Amino acid sequence: MTIEITNESGVPVDETVLLRLTEHNLAQLNVSPDADLAILLVDEGAMESLHVQWMDEPGPTDVLSFPMDELRPGTEDAPTPPGLLGDIVLCPQVAETQAQAARHTTLDELILLTTHGLLHLLGFDHAEPDEEREMFGLQRELIAAFHASERRRA
Fold this sequence. Notes:
Layout: E1 2-7, H1 15-28, E2 36-41, H2 44-55, E3 63-67, E4 84-90, H3 92-102, H4 106-121, H5 129-153
Parallel strand pairs: 1-2, 2-4
Antiparallel strand pairs: 3-4
């Protein structure tokens, strides 16, 4: 699996945690080890440009996902085939503001946003109430399992 993380945001971010998170989540979702993914961290100006260009909405946002091969989660017996998952774009400055409001760390917010973006790449959405329950429930499960695995590492 190739997971490329590029930080162009100007904000220091623990990229090794995001890498471990993404590897963990992809394994939990039975995505092929031959799938590729890119994570890009950008500043507010770059995120605002992408938000306007792709969503036609003003201002910077926290996370954008750009799926490529429309891969879906697999199963233990039938993992997702190899392919290009796509790109997750994060804005640490927006994440920091949201983290303060939620009373947790910016890294915790980036963990949430990375997981959220990955689920979008795998076809999950939250436009309808039942979709939101499914996606956010899975998001909580993945993050809790990741934190448990991180505690075991310590």
